[in-house]
Structure formats: C-alpha cells, structure tokens
Amino acid sequence: MGAIIDIIGALLLVLGTAFLFLGGVGLHRMPDVFNRIQVGTKTTTLGTLLTLAGAACLHPDWSLKLLLIGLFLLFTNPLSSQVLARAAYRSGAKKMATMVTDQFGDEPGDRS
Amino acid sequence: MNSEVLSSTRQSVELFVTLFMFWVLLNGSLAPDTLAIGCVAAFVIAVLFRDGLSFLFEFRILPSSLWASVQYFVYFMKELIVANVRLAIIVLSPSLPIKPGIVKVRTRLKSRMGRLLLANSITLTPGTLTVELEDDWLYIHWVTVEAVDMEDATTLIVAGFERYLERMYG
Amino acid sequence: MVEVLIYVAAGLAGGAFLLALARFVKGPTTADRVVAFDVLTIVAITGIVFAAMFEGRVIYLDVALVYALLSFLGVIVIARYVERKA
C-alpha cells in the first residue's frame, strides 16, 4: 500500500515539474508580455500544486505545511500576475500588432 | 452600537480568525503556549490593521454558501487543469495558434473579497488574465479571443464563477 | 523506481529554471524580466521542496513558505516601480 502511494507521489512530482518545464518553454515561444504572463502564472500554479501534492504523498507527515504553501501560492500567484499585467500595460508594452481587440485602451480616459 | 461600529468590529473579528487559523496551520500543533502566542499576535494585528482583507470578509455564514464554496473549489480545480492542458497544447503546437486581445466584461458582484476572488479565478482559468479591475468592469487579456462583444464575453468568462461567488459573498 | 522518478522530476524543474533564467537574461522589456523572475522564484520554491525531500528535513518547508511570501512582495514592488516609471 505504502509503495503504491510512493509511486503515485513520484508520478505527481514528474507531472508537476513537467508543467513547470512547459511554462519555461512557453516563456520563450509566446510573442509578448501578456501571453508570457498567462503561461507563467497558470503552469506554475498547477505545476507547483501537483509537486506539493506529490511531496505530500511521499511524506504524509508534511501534509499540513505543504497544504499551507499550496494555499498561499494559489492566492498570491494570480494576484502578482494581475499587478504585473497592469504594470506592463501602463508601461507601454501593449504596442503589439497581433492583438485582435483592445477594449482597455479604447476607453476615454486612456491610461497609457 | 451603530451599524458602522458593528461592521468594523466584525471585520476585525474576521481578520483575527483568519490570522489565527494561519498561525495554527503554520505551527501544526495545538499546544497551549503556541495557541496563546498566536492569539495575542493575531489580536494585535487585527486591532492595528482594521481594513485588512480576509477570506471571511463579507462571507455569508449559511449552509448554502458553504456548499457553494465546495462547488466553487471543485469547479475551480477543474478549470485550472483545463487551462493548463490547453496552454500546453498551444505552446507545443508548432504553429502557435493564438489570437490575443483585451476584452471588457462586467461583474454583478458587489463585495470586495468576492471581486478579488473572481479576478484571481479568471486569471487561473483557460486563456484569460485579469489586467484591471475598475468598479463593475474587468479588463481581461484573452489568449484566444472568442467573443468581442461585452455581453458574450461576460457569459463566457465571468458567469461560471459568478454563479458560486454570488452565493458565497453576494 | 520512485528514486528515478524523483530525479527525473528534479531534472525537469532544473530545466524550467534554466529556461526562465534565459528569458530573464534576454528580456527584452523590464516586464518580461519580471515575469521570468516570478517563474524563477516559484520554480525555486519547488526546488526547496525537493531539497527538503532529499535531506528529509521538514524545516526547509518553512524556508519555502517565507520565500514564497517575500517573492510575492518583491514582484508586487517591482511591478509598482515599473508602473510608476512609465
């Protein structure tokens, strides 16, 4: 029984870090800041959660602390991405031709 | 006691409870001296920072809202996994099939915490990222824009979470 | 089996770290670098969790938690700075 949980935990670790790796690849493939933020925030959140879950399977007595780290990241990760996206927009990173629509900049009180 | 004082007291109590729970989780023990230190520290912070946001802020303590939280969590996890798989496909396909843009959507949520959670949830779900929160309006960066119209975009992006958050926070 | 998988996972995390580091060096804008920095810190947190597992010491997880807290603050502060500068 314990051996099976160990293997599940190890597989979760590999899956989680695979998502982190994909995030790294995405950082290079995506053409502009906003798409990079998207890839960065989503893959790292799920990747870290899976890794923490894997670690919890391998070390059940650490579960509480791993859960705390997971909850914390779940809350702060998207927040920092949002602040970053807004900062990127205001610092003029929006200048990219590939955007099909930009209803943020269309507003009367243009923020850029 | 007037209602303003009452709501500010409630806010402090909610902050205290959140901080105290964080402390207990962090220590992972229920020894009396640990609890006592946590109690004092949480109390001091709750009194000093009355405006602090906490998870319980404006949360409706009703059985139906608790059930909504559970449903919300399950839905959120499902969306997070879908988001990642979709992004993985986009990143790994040689043609890089993206069609990015920023759309404007509207939320019916009124509470601060509800809106914050909504913005966070949107950031972690398929292809969307909250850029700005302004009154009732949210500006969303979308990797693959599927609807330019505000109403359509609202249905596609916001409605799924709003359903649950509305019952949780109002 | 389990040992091998853990090493594979650690390797993947290392790869993610290098990719993010490359983006951090390349830029081109400050915002790009901050995104890369954000990813770097989160990969570093998983790195600390791996270190905790290899060493079998639970105290490292506290380090990871504090690091998560500080990196969050760091990203917020840098983002504010980028915004102000514009």
UniProtKB/TrEMBL annotation, chain B:
Could you give one GO CC term from the UniProt record? plasma membrane
The GO molecular function terms of this record are: monoatomic cation transmembrane transporter activity
Subcellular locations according to the entry: Cell membrane
Tagged with keyword Protein biosynthesis: no
Keywords (A to Z) from UniProt: Cell membrane, Membrane, Transmembrane, Transmembrane helix
Query: Could you list the residue ranges that cross the membrane?
Result: 20-49, 83-103
State the Pfam families in the record.
Answer: MNHE
Q: Which InterPro entries match?
A: Cation_antiport_E
Q: Does the keyword RNA-binding apply?
A: no
Q: What membrane topology is annotated for this entry?
A: Multi-pass membrane protein
The UniProt entry's sequence similarity note says: Belongs to the CPA3 antiporters (TC 2.A.63) subunit E family.
User: Which named protein is this?
Assistant: Cation:proton antiporter
**Source organism of this protein record:** Magnetovibrio blakemorei
From TrEMBL, chain C:
Q: Which residues cross the membrane?
A: 6-25, 34-53, 59-82
User: What molecular function terms (GO) are annotated for this protein?
Assistant: sodium:proton antiporter activity
Taxonomically, the superkingdom here is Bacteria
Cell compartment(s), UniProt:
Cell membrane
Q: Which residues, if any, are the signal sequence?
A: none
Transmembrane helix is among the record's keywords: yes
Question: Where is this protein primarily located?
Answer: membrane
Q: Per UniProt, what is the membrane topology?
A: Multi-pass membrane protein
Keyword Membrane assigned = yes
InterPro entries given for it?
Answer: MrpF/PhaF-like
Q: Which GO terms describe its cellular component?
A: plasma membrane
- The entry's keywords: Cell membrane, Membrane, Transmembrane, Transmembrane helix, Transport
Q: Which family does it belong to?
A: Belongs to the CPA3 antiporters (TC 2.A.63) subunit F family.
Protein name as catalogued: Cation:proton antiporter
